[in-house]
Amino acid sequence: MQRQKVIIDCDPGIDDMLALMLAVQAPELEVVGITVVCGNVPVELGVENTFRCLERCHRLDIPVYQGATTPLTREFISAQDTHGMDGLGETYFPRTSEKTIEVQDAATYLATTFAQPTAISVIALGPLTNIAQALQKNPQLGEHMQRFVSMGGTYKSHGNCSPVAEYNYWCDPDAAAYVFQHLNQTIEMVGLDVTREIVLTPTLIEYCRRMNPEIGQFIQAITRFYVDFHWQQEHILGCVINDPLAVAYFIDPTICTGFESFTAVETTSISMGQTLVDRYDFWQKPANSKILTEVDTYSFFGKFLTVILHAQEELIQTDLKNLM
Ligand code: RIB
Ligand code: CA
């Protein structure tokens, strides 16, 4: 099987960490680079957490590029209230390697990588600041990539940063608006409509511990803070793991279904960061996005748990019948 080449842009972050664990170990993917953006945590911390992930997954071969320290124009507001001050649920795991960032910054790396048509895709798991800056450097960025998947936005589900806005697009609405306006590539938007269905429950966390004690204990440790946040905020028992769904959907697009639409992002006023999905074509503009609205949660967890727990797929699928 030919591995699909992909760059992951992320802001690790607890769910980014789980998404990276999936991406760098999935047999279908070749992660050719990781770019880090300010978001859940300041970008320097996101870089450190990326190194922590690559150390744990024995993938220190993957180059890491540091990106934007602030949004394009807005003041930077992190999500450390949700992910902990260290971005990993205040576990403060030590680093074990001497790995350092690449010399190129993230936007330059992205802009030069897509200077010509490539078979490389991009999965964006954080605010779109790096992507917007790369697009400003190289207007053909989108046309020269294979696919662009973004965890962000929401169609009908309520926001998680305001009544209408999702964090990645709320943190840097100008970047999101710019990318939706100028990328010239279908933005496969894995938004809260589908990610809210992906709840890592206490039962599934305990299952991870039983199936692979070392990895399961790590997952339990980094998600505890996130589970507490979800209970306090929305009385959800477990935690919504948004980013791994974007990776799993990239690997297997049948996991989610949706529709093509023109979408714009609000950049001002109290609805800043809102994705305005013109499903009924009021504005008569060509579709620039695919909005995912339905998800097969069973298929997602089958793929996700098989890869990150290094387990037999058939066993996971059998067990999930009793766990979900
Ligand atoms: O709104 C959820 C998104 O914002 C996720 O990508 C999470 O990691 C944060 O970046
Ligand atoms: Ca993220």
UniProtKB/TrEMBL annotation:
Domain Inosine/uridine-preferring nucleoside hydrolase: from-to ranges: 6-301
Domain of life: Bacteria
Swiss-Prot/TrEMBL keywords: Glycosidase, Hydrolase
Keyword flag Iron-sulfur: no
Record-linked InterPro entries: Inosine/uridine_hydrolase_dom, IUNH, Ribo_hydro-like
Annotated Gene3D superfamilies: Ribonucleoside hydrolase-like
A UniProt-annotated Pfam family: IU_nuc_hydro
Keyword Hydrolase tagged: yes
Cross-referenced PANTHER family: INOSINE-URIDINE PREFERRING NUCLEOSIDE HYDROLASE, URIDINE NUCLEOSIDASE
Protein name: Purine nucleosidase
